[in-house]
Amino acid sequence: MSALEKFGVEIFTQHNIFERISADKPFRPENPAFIFIKSGTIKLRQHFSDLELSANMFMVTDPQTVYEMVSVSGDFQSRMVSYKREFISALSLKFNRLITYRYFRQQMNKGVPFPENEMEVVWKSVNFLKYILDSDTEMLYQKEMVEHLFSVFCYQMAGIISKEDNNFMNQMSRQEEIVFVFLTDLAEHHLTEKTVEFYAERQSVTTRHLSSVVKSITGKSASQIIALIVMNEAKVLLNSSNKPVAEISSILGFSDQYAFSHFFKKHLELSPRQYRHQFES
Q1: 169 lies in some domain
Q2: Given the DSSP bridges, would you call strands 49-53 and 77-83 parallel, antiparallel or unpaired?
Q3: For position 109, what pLDDT does the model report?
Q4: Per the domain annotation, does 251 fall within a domain?
Q5: Handedness of CA 199, 202, 203, 207 (dihedral sign)
Q6: pLDDT-derived band at 180, boundaries 50, 70, 90
Q7: Does the pTM exceed 0.85?
Q8: Does one domain contain both 202 and 148?
């Protein structure tokens, strides 16, 4: 049984992080996580932008996002704290909104440096939590220690994120807010709703206004981003499951397999079967 199943939290280092971060194809994390970089660099593609993280930076990953690893340096040193969402749900809504906003800023390709002294403190907390999680000997109150240490870690992160992001969040422009809500809605509804009209109506704005604002903030139109999200879903389903193409087209909300294949080929110039064949050993 993994630590994640047993305790609700698991910690990976640079030696085994690629068990969870696929190095050669798009992937979706099963659980949310914090990734801390102590040294070296890693570049990840997420939705419509590349995010490069270097020493003393961290990011949050979300199971609603499809990622693709672009590159990693030889001196890469990291910790990934992966956790079950219910393990953190007891924390305040304010903290969860901060996490969501931090994630939104990443989508805008805005990695934020982490003060080195704060990284040192968090690094020690994470390593101590890992020591308790990995203990081979029977440890009295191990579960309770994990829960309390994880809470300490979360409050550390809440303090750091609040300090860094609260001002930005309060200063979010109306345009950024429109994009923020669009991306949040899209993460929730993209399997059933693929029109710009639906997302514009959700915010009581015109399709022209939504597209214009999204383009000005992200560099891509609303329809391009919708297509990207759906394509990323399709890639993950094709390369990480044995589901038939017809079933995948149904999951993705297409009327039939042919509509899905036409959509996929239009955006990638490969059929779904040709794309899947690339990852077959």
Answers
A1: no
A2: unpaired
A3: 66
A4: yes
A5: positive
A6: confident
A7: no
A8: no
Q: Which residues pair with 124 in a beta bridge?
A: none
Residues 6+ apart with CB under 8 A from 224: 48
Answer yes or no: do 152 and 268 share one domain.
no
What is d(CA 161, CA 184) in angstroms, rounded to the nearest whole number? 20
Q: Dump pLDDT digits (tens) for 70-119.
A: 999 999 999 999 998 777 765 555 666 677 777 777 776 667 778 889 99
Mean pLDDT of 210-214: 94
Considering the domain architecture, whether residues 22 and 147 belong to the same structural domain is answered as yes
User: What pairs with residue 18 in β-bridges?
Assistant: none
Q: Which of 164, 192, 214 finishes a domain? A: 164
Domain boundaries, position 262: 174-278
Angle between the 222-240 and 207-218 helix axes, to the nearest 10 degrees? Answer: 70
Q: Report the pLDDT value the prediction gives residue 90, as an integer from 0 to 100.
A: 58
Same domain, yes or no, for 111 and 62? yes
CATH number of the domain bearing residue 102:
2.60.120.280
Element (H, E) at 10: strand 9-13
For residue 27 the two structure tokens come to 């992937």
Q: Which residues pair with 194 in a beta bridge?
A: none
8 A C-beta contact, residue 49 and residue 107: yes
pLDDT (0 to 100) of residue 21: 84
DSSP 185-224: HHHHHTTT---HHHHHHHTT--HHHHHHHHHHHHSS-HHH
- Longest C-alpha distance within the chain, in Å? 62
